[in-house]
């Protein structure tokens, strides 16, 4: 796991993590949660959003797999998924499939080379990383399965972005980053 980039603005911290394909995917959120709390050592963090990206080799089965994806991911993203009318010659990173969770907090976008789960947290989740962790683990593990079983490919690498606020005036985000990285 590598920290790829950090962004700081007032009390907002955004961290980009990178995982290569050798990283044991089923424990990434647990390790990440420990890492965030250990490094920052602050208890008043408000999680705003997370985005998890799985990168895989170019795959032309994405458009044809929309119904299988709907069926496989139906517990997390109700059908129908949106099959976007993107021309075949459009850049491969443009999403071809889009889905939104039942309550609208999480979106799923699948392109010819990536699958991305982005979640916005509300007041029921944003103060409790363990709730975020459980929520993410379920969806991301299922997404890995979908990439492997439906798209019939393995992932190359993955990345995780988390955005949170320090809800304490005494914790200056710049100093927290400088003192811990």
Give the topology, please.
Elements: E1 2-9, E2 12-20, H1 28-40, E3 45-55, H2 66-72, E4 82-83, E5 97-100, E6 106-110, E7 114-120, H3 129-149, E8 157-166, H4 173-180
Antiparallel strand pairs: 1-2, 2-8, 3-7, 3-8, 4-5, 5-6, 6-7
Class from secondary-structure proportions: alpha+beta
Low-confidence stretches are none
> How many strand segments?
8
Provide the spatial order of strands within the biggest beta sheet.
1-2-8-3-7-6-5-4
Strand content bin = 25-35%
Averaging pLDDT over every residue, what do you get? 79
Radius of gyration: 17 Å
Describe the structure.
The protein has 181 residues and is α+β, with helices and mostly antiparallel strands. It has helices at 28-40, 66-72, 129-149, 173-180; strands at residues 2-9, 12-20, 45-55, 82-83, 97-100, 106-110, 114-120, 157-166. It has an 8-stranded antiparallel beta sheet, with helices on one face.
């Amino acid at each position: 796991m590598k920290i790829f980039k950090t962004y700081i603005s007032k009390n907002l911290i955004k961290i980009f993590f990178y995982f290569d394909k050798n990283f044991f995917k089923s424990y990434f959120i647990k390790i990440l949660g420990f890492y965030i709390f250990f490094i920052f050592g602050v208890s008043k963090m408000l999680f705003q959003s997370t985005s998890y990206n799985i990168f895989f080799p170019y795959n032309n089965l994405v458009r044809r797999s929309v119904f299988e994806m709907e069926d496989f991911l139906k517990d997390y993203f109700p059908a129908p998924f949106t099959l976007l009318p993107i021309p075949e010659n459009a850049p491969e990173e443009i999403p071809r499939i889009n889905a939104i969770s039942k309550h609208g907090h999480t979106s799923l976008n699948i392109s010819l080379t990536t699958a991305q789960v982005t979640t916005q947290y509300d007041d029921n989740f944003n103060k409790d990383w363990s709730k975020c962790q459980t929520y993410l683990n379920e969806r991301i593990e299922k997404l890995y399965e979908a990439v492997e079983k439906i798209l019939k490919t393995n992932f190359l690498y993955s990345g995780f972005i988390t955005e949170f606020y320090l809800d304490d005036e005494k914790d200056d985000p710049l100093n927290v980053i400088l003192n811990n990285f």
